[in-house]
Automatic annotation (TrEMBL):
Presence of the UniProt keyword Cell cycle in the record: no
Keywords associated with the record: Ligase
InterPro entries named in the record: ANL_N_sf, CapK_Type1_Caps_Biosynth
Entry's Gene Ontology molecular function annotations: ligase activity
Protein name in UniProt: AMP-dependent synthetase and ligase
PANTHER family, sorted: CAPSULAR POLYSACCHARIDE BIOSYNTHESIS PROTEIN
Gene3D superfamilies given in the database record: N-terminal domain of ligase-like (3.40.50.12780)
Domain of life: Bacteria
């Protein structure tokens, strides 16, 4: 509800500056409250004594609980993860993007979702450049509900549906004359490729900020967006299962929303890693009461920065370092090529408009390349092959073919890597 969301806004702004010790004590209390609730009300957790033995005495004890993997969430009946004996009328429903081809329905209770929405305001304010009166265009595959405050020309959000033809997307976007542009990197890259020099100049006349979200933003992509759009670029990391995970401040720190989520970094076997080490990310969104997810393996790879951001916020900072852990090609000798390897080719290689990679169950790698209109196919493919062998630190069996377009997942994201070989590794 809007009133509750409005009341949460100042709370979320204050909490990001709470002393580190105070934040840790609050997190421990909130996580224990969620674990007690889940052990009593949620069938999946009630079936395991681990979740109800005793309150945690320290946040490090959270690592004694099992990792919840996406396969478990997909394969178990959804009712196993939903809280019993609660009012479900105010729950918010989301579907995961389906980048693996299988989507999952996720539920959030009204209170935690309102707190998330309130916390999103600090995402914009943290840039030090955003004004609530700015016109905002949001490139995404679904339409969000209108908000009450937009009637007063505050935080106006104009959704441009990405499932429409590009000519319609461009016309609607340019007609809105946005001062802020938000989108997934795959959509922003496609937009840049489609804009003429005149259209890009028209967009740049009003544009003041660009926000990326949901997908990995590599340094190369950030540089490309900054140069092409001519404005600062700020990153945000979220997932439908846990909502916002981090937001970027004016000093470049990507701050974990630690007043609603706890993030861990673990190795491939689920063992905790120290700050600064790269590993798989686990997220516990401890405000949730509809569908609590404890130590949820979100599928991404990153590291928590051991240094604190000079902006003064006490929330730790997190960096996504590679593509999704699921979006990886494993070669016969054990070498791994993550999605950002292929993203580099797609974004920067001369003559390449887009690419996607498929690895079959036998481990064979097939890369499909969408060429720029004026590109000469044979030299481009030869150069791509040579570049990939450099990035992979040596040759491997690779088939290169010409394609017409990039496949899109059920959730509207570009399908960059798909591997059937992972199941056997």
């Amino acid at each position: 509800m809007f009133l509750r969301e409005a009341l949460y806004v100042p709370v979320t702004l204050i909490r990001q500056y709470a002393p580190a010790g105070t934040l840790e004590r609050r997190k421990l209390r909130w996580i224990n409250e969620m674990l007690a609730f889940a052990a009593e009300r949620v069938p999946f957790y009630r079936d395991y004594d681990l979740y109800s033995r005793h309150p945690l005495q320290d946040l490090s004890e959270l690592t004694t609980l099992p990792v919840l993997r996406k396969e478990t969430l997909r394969n178990r009946p959804q009712e196993d993860f939903l809280a019993e004996g609660t009012d479900r009328s105010g729950w918010r429903d989301f579907q995961t993007s389906g980048s693996t081809g299988r989507r999952v329905l996720v539920r959030h209770d009204g209170r935690s979702h309102d707190y998330h929405l309130a916390a999103c305001f600090r995402r914009f304010l943290a840039t030090g450049r955003y004004l609530p009166t700015y016109r905002l265009s949001h490139l995404r595959p679904y339409e969000g509900p209108p908000r009450f405050f937009e009637k007063f020309k505050l935080f106006r959000r104009h959704t441009v549906l990405t499932r429409r033809p590009m000519d319609e997307i461009k016309a609607e976007l340019l007609g809105n004359r946005p001062q802020v542009l938000i989108g997934w990197p795959v959509h922003l890259r496609e937009l840049l490729r489609s804009l003429s020099a005149g259209e890009l100049a028209q967009l740049r006349r009003t544009l003041k900020l660009v926000f990326t979200e949901s997908e990995l933003l590599t340094p190369q992509l950030r540089a490309q967006f900054t140069e092409s759009f001519g404005v600062p670029v700020f990153d945000e990391y979220s997932a439908f299962e846990v909502l916002n995970v981090y937001f970027e401040c004016s000093r470049g720190g990507r701050h974990i929303s630690e007043d609603r989520v706890h993030v861990e970094v673990v190795d491939d076997d689920g063992r905790p890693l120290p700050e600064g080490a790269e590993g798989r990310l686990l997220v516990t969104a401890y405000m949730e009461r509809a569908m609590p997810l404890v130590r949820y393996a979100i599928g991404d790879i990153g590291r928590i920065n051991p240094d604190r951001c000079p902006c003064g916020r006490t929330f730790r900072t997190l960096e996504l370092t590679r593509g999704r852990a699921d979006d990886v090609v494993v070669l016969a000798d054990g070498r791994k090529l993550y999605a950002d390897t292929f993203m580099w080719i797609s974004a920067w290689h001369p003559g390449v408009a887009e690419c996607f990679v498929h690895q079959d169950a036998a481990g064979r790698v097939r890369m499909s390349v969408v060429l720029d209109p004026e590109a000469d196919p044979e030299p481009v493919l030869d150069a791509v092959r040579a570049e990939l062998f450099v990035l992979a630190n040596g040759p491997f069996e690779l088939e290169l073919v010409i394609a017409e377009a990039l496949p899109v997942s059920a959730g509207g994201k570009g399908k960059l890597v798909a591997s059937e070989y992972l199941a056997g590794v």
